Structure formats: C-alpha cells, structure tokens
Amino acid sequence: MRPLIALAALAALATFAITPAAASCPAGMKTYLNCTAKGGKKRIVLCAGKRGIRYVYGPVRGKPELRLDRPLSAVKHTPWRGVGRSIWEDVRFSNGGYDYTVAISRDRMKLGEPYGAVFVEKGGREVARVECDPGRIKLKLWLFDDLDVK
Q: Which backbone phi and psi does 82 adopt, to 5 degrees?
C-alpha cells in the first residue's frame, strides 16, 4: 500500500512540474510566481528577466488561454514599503485595454503560506480576480528589485 501512495504522490508532483502551462521559464528568466488556481484546474505563471516578462494563464494541462511577453519598459513594479505584517509586492502590465496586476505576499511574522493572485481591470474596474490555490504556490519576492524595474 505504501508504494502506491508514494507513486501517487510522485505522479501528482510530476503533473505540477511538467505540464505545458507550467513549463519552466525561458532561458534568462526566473520564476516570480507559479501556482495553480481554481481548484487545480488553472495555472498562473509569471517569469521575469533583464529583457522582460512572460505571463501565462490557462489550464494546467493543454494550451494556455493567454500568453503575454512584455519588455520591462512596459511593466510597473510596486515594491513592499517595509511596513506592515505582510511582505508584498505587485507587477502591472496591460493587454488590449485590460490591466493585469500580479500580486504576491508572505506573512513576515510567521513566514507562513505565501499568497498569489491576478487582478484584471478594464477602465479602472475589476473584471476578474484569480487567487492561487493554497499550498500550490511558488514565488520569489524581490525579483524585480534585482532587475531594477520601477
């Protein structure tokens, strides 16, 4: 019975790691956020590097619904100001009249479960919010500080 449980756990990890929307970031980019959402049905990935960002959203398996590549000059980064219980930051970019904010945070008192989400606005009004599934979040705070994005 234990070998079956171990095999099932390995299969679950492999599914998270190698599905198309979860593909590792391209050469020269690092993962800012990679998580599942909507009960494991969707994937959110944001990669960043000196030349720009790549945002991917879509089903965990199959072709992404949306993939955007943007130069760093088209990205606005809001860093944590050093105040408050949570260490947080966000990254904003646009596509066809829609503004996307990818937000990440971590409780600095407990260094507990990280948080990640995407907020989509049109004309300043929120039209969608997708939060990462707890326990399925990988993030890298301060990545954009390393890239010197304002």
A: 85, 10
